[in-house]
Amino acid sequence: MKKNKFILASVAALIAVSPVLSFDSQANTVQAADTNVTNKMIMHTAVAYDKDGNSTGVKYNAFSYARLVASPVKIGDSIYYKVADKDQYLKATNIDGVTRRITHNTYIYSTSTRRTSYQNRWKLYRGQTITTYGGSYRFKNGKHYFRVGGPAKQYVKSYNLGPVIRANTTMAPNNNNTSSNTTTNKPNNSTTNNTQPIGNEETTVTVDANYSTPIITFDKSDNVVKVRTATPGEKFTVDYLENGSRADKVASYIGQFGGEQAIYRIKGTNNWLYSMGVKPASKITLHNYDNENTSMIRFTKDTDLYNADGTLQNIRLIKTSYPWHVDKLVYIWVPSENKVEEFYHLTPTRYWQDVYTLSSNGQYVKDHIALKNDNYVKVSDVHFEQNSVALTPSNTVAEVEAAAKK
């Protein structure tokens, strides 16, 4: 009798001091409960499967969040995330996506007939790579599209994309089977890192308690808009690190400058966190916004400004060391030269510029003016930044010559 009381007391003590352990009467083994849990956004409607890869009939809607065990597992030939505290597994391709190469220049669509932008780009080019989520959708026009972003509707035609280059989900070593009933004993002082990167372009950041860190977004003019203030210690999965003009705007908005300003994009959103206000679990690739999203030129000499009809404005931009954004490449008939020339259209600026203007005595003199919004410069007069986005002409020489003859 005393022996039985001792056994019961021992079991009770074990339960009291070991809340993360449970007894499996069928397997007769001790299993660790779900730990290392993270919240992740579902990017594509996901069916939940059981540990054997059979559908449970449960669905998780796109752009909802799920509490998942951070370490992915492999069931059969597919990678899954386990739903915390449930016998449910979601395919990682619906969450992290896969990387594909663009095989033909392509637009981004919100519907079968309406175009939209993706990361401030209206067109993607052959050779670039992009993340797609889940399987393709068939639109009303009968064509198939892959989702490339969200929650805004952003899709790319499937026939403009090549096969999968790589999965964006990183498997830990020996973490490829969920059916094992054995446990690995760890030393008492071992710790589990719940902020490991999930893909090559993804990591987890923790909000620094020493900063008042706002979550921000950008309006159509790339002005900073505050969403809310992040809570100290709050964790986010981020999938893009950016520097350049937009990051500089955020630094100016917050009033904190730390050398090379950068911003992290919160995965599945268009919301951002300033790099000085968070601590990343690991490094991810740094992208320059201006190089990757815009086209830029430099004025290597004093450069004439033209109107859209090919006439001179009698204004010259002064040679500068900084780049200028351009948003269009176009052929224009130049009446004074009686020929077609290729021009860049300058992105409008609201700042006054140091220029030379033609005076009444026929000499160019230094001036400081506000430029109008429709300005062109000859391609032959400027230097194009090779690392920025290439432009293609919006018309042809033949079209311009035919219009000139009329």
TrEMBL record:
Domain S-layer protein C-terminal: 92-157
Keywords for this protein: Signal
Superkingdom assignment: Bacteria
The keyword Ribosomal protein appears for this protein: no
Pfam short name (any one): SlpA
Disordered: region residues: 170-199
Signal peptide positions (record): 1-22
Record flagged with keyword Signal: yes
Biased composition (Low complexity): 170-195
InterPro entries: S-layer_prot, SlpA_C_lactobacillus
Name used for this protein in its record: SLAP domain-containing protein
The organism of origin for this protein: Lactobacillus kitasatonis
